[in-house]
Design a protein that fits this description.
By secondary structure, the chain is mostly helical. The protein has helices at about 1-30, 35-55, 65-95, 95-105, 105-120, 125-140, 155-175, 180-200, 205-210, 215-240, 245-250, 255-265, 270-285, 290-300. The model is unreliable at about 290-300 (pLDDT under 50).
Length: about 300
């Protein structure tokens, strides 16, 4: 039970770190920076940060089983590079609120894929938590009217694609952490993802554009350290204690956290229905603890 709580805490903290992406990213986008350039730069710099940390503290963890390289490359390509391209394009075509809702179909994909490829059980509690969390995301994002997407199927497919590829980060991350240390997993997933992103947009472009603006350099540094390095490490760390399906549901704390950060630092409004959405997402995370609690009670009684 302690490990489940630790895993939920780590994954929830990862979601909060990812939520700062909107805050720091908005500061950069307001200056005309290209989102794909920012995504490429954040991944590359976070990879360098991971590499420096591992070389200084745990150099032996850079040595991995060669059989895992292919899986790490697939995870980086799908869960980081392709996901970023799909998600940013979904935002561009459908707007932030709708893109967030489409993105958080990812737990549905993760639960199904984890059942097929990882053998994780599909329980009633997990399904209930999935429905509650998704409903909460809809309320938080205020995405009640999706009628405008009827005439824009490309936006729907792109948003669903973002959700699918984000779910693969959970599946690949869980699979790889079974035989590779979480630090190594975090580094190589980010590193391979940054290579693929660099092929789309060189990572130094964003740095070149803002090098003369100290405040923007600080925003980029925070995006790298908090929104990327810390988020990925905490999420992979949490996956070592949680099922991939449960982790993908628990990380739905990201949209509520992003909304509150936007309210506090960017002056965006909050309405009562968004508070209701936050409560639902937190309820879903709490619900994920119940199966383990029930099992532990039965074990003590036996």
């Amino acid at each position: 039970m302690v490990n489940i709580n630790k895993g939920l805490l780590m994954v929830s903290c990862a979601g909060i770190c990812w939520a700062t992406t909107g805050l720091f990213g908005t500061l950069l986008f307001r200056e005309g920076l290209d989102p794909v350039s920012v995504a490429s730069t954040r991944s590359a710099l976070a990879s360098i940060l991971f590499l420096g940390f591992l070389l200084a503290a745990h150099p032996k963890k850079l040595i991995i089983n060669p059989r895992q390289i292919f899986m790490l490359a697939l995870g980086g390509l799908s869960g980081i590079a392709i996901f970023n391209v799909f998600y940013l394009n979904a935002i561009n075509m459908a707007g932030m609120s709708t893109a967030v809702v489409l993105l958080y179909t990812s737990p549905v994909f993760a639960v199904i894929l984890a059942r097929i490829f990882l053998g994780e059980p599909l329980t009633r509690v997990k399904v209930a938590a999935l429905i509650i969390a998704f409903t909460g995301v809809i309320l938080v994002a205020e995405a009640f009217d999706l009628g405008n997407l009827i005439n824009n199927p490309q936006a729907v497919l792109t948003g669903l694609g973002a959700g699918f590829f984000f779910s693969l980060l959970s599946v690949f991350g869980k699979y790889i952490t079974g035989s590779t240390h979480r630090l190594s997993t975090s580094f190589y997933l980010l590193f391979t993802g940054s290579i693929f992103l660099a092929l789309i947009r060189p990572p130094w472009l964003a740095v070149m554009e803002i090098r003369s603006a100290p405040s923007l350099l600080m925003a980029l540094a925070a995006l790298v350290l908090i929104s990327t390095f810390s988020a990925h490490f905490l999420y992979i760390y949490g996956l070592s204690y949680l099922e991939a399906g449960k982790a993908s549901i628990a990380v739905a704390i990201e949209p509520p956290a992003a909304i509150f950060l936007a309210y506090i630092f960017l002056g965006e409004r909050l309405v009562p229905v968004q508070y209701a959405g936050v409560i639902l997402v937190l309820a879903a995370v709490f619900l994920l603890r119940l199966p383990q609690k029930a099992e532990s009670i039965r074990h003590r009684q036996s």
